[in-house]
Amino acid sequence: MSNAEESFTTSLADDAFAREDERDDALFYARDRFVAHLDARALETVEQLIGALVHEPAPAVLDLMASWDSHLPPALDAARVVGVGMNENELRQNAQLDRYLVHDLNRDPHLPFPDASFDVVLNTVSVDYLTRPGEVFTEVGRVLKPGGLHLVIFSNRCFPEKAVRRWLRSSEGERVMLVEDYFRAVGSFEAPRVFVSKGLPRPEDDRYAELGLPSDPVYAVFAERRGGAPGRPRRELPSTYSGQRPSAEELARRKEETRRSLCCPHCGVRMLRWQVPQTPFTEWDAEFMYICFNDDCPYLMAGWGSLGEQGNVGFSHRQMYEPRRHAFYPALVTGLRDLRAGIVAEPAEETEREPS
Ligand SMILES: C[S@@+](CC[C@H](N)C(=O)[O-])C[C@H]1O[C@@H](n2cnc3c(N)ncnc32)[C@H](O)[C@@H]1O
Known about the structure:
- This protein is of the alpha/beta class.
- The chain has helices at residues 3-11, 25-28, 40-53, 88-92, 133-143, 165-168, 172-184, 248-261, 298-309; strands at 60-64, 80-85, 99-102, 118-124, 144-154, 193-197, 218-224, 272-275, 288-291, 316-322, 327-333.
- The strands form two sheets. Strands 3-2-1-4-5-7-6 form a seven-stranded mixed β-sheet, with helices on both faces. A four-stranded antiparallel β-sheet has the order 8-9-10-11.
- α1 packs antiparallel against α5.
- The termini are far apart.
- Bound molecules: S-adenosylmethionine.
- S-adenosylmethionine binds next to loops.
């Protein structure tokens, strides 16, 4: 057991890295799965993220736990892409790979590559299946060049019988922290950073679109191998919200209009009357507020990313408005259903608006 592995197992329950299906992984992955593990919009985000974070010209890329698609943007123009996975048919069909290797990382976490041989190591929607993450992350640190990027991307779907218990017992935010711990436990990485994209609309032609579900969330934790050239440019995250956000002046003008219209200044959709929960912990003296419940509101959509970057992973905010004080507040949410139970009908006679 490596030192890194020890630090996880001593601080976690004995079965943290056990799985419901403890049989050989080769059995489970013998079946071909030419499926998309995320919806099309989330896959677009994955591709954009890889494109934004990989700076190296003609990088050598290692795709760990790979299948038939490595999600590399065409502009990446990699010099060499090597895939490591469990299903040979899937790997053979992956047009982005120059070379592949069927190799069980839970049996043998050693990566059969020389030290400092890759610029980028990817692990997409698969870190939850690693039973020896400390050893694998140590190996990734070894095969990466100094300053090279280890990018671990995940969502909230998995094969539960093959995911480790620690993962299944964690909330989405805790999983981000768990992966950050994997990086920190290995001395070879810089401080990990986090990316979150959540709450984007699901494509209309998606098989689950009718259920009103948002696109699959995309989380990523990434870090560079220590020892990169000093003064090299920082890897900049893409914005999770690509729509137009109003300028500060425009926003101020729209906020004035909200007095009269009760429309959200960010998206223009009429806000809904919301009953403030009266609990001993509630500080609001107002009985009602107005909240924007538009799931496509830029304020909400951008919040998943901006709050996530501040360490509040899994949170965003809806715009809340108190007419009596003409005051705007962020109403924190962890999902699109939060706060909806408090929506109430408008009174017949509007009494709370300020006279215009
Ligand atoms: C959900 S799929 C993701 C595939 C791919 N990374 C993608 O983005 O579509 C999980 C992948 O993890 C790989 N995998 C699972 N257990 C593994 C193990 N013990 N060693 C190596 N790869 C493994 C499987 O081959 C499978 O392709």
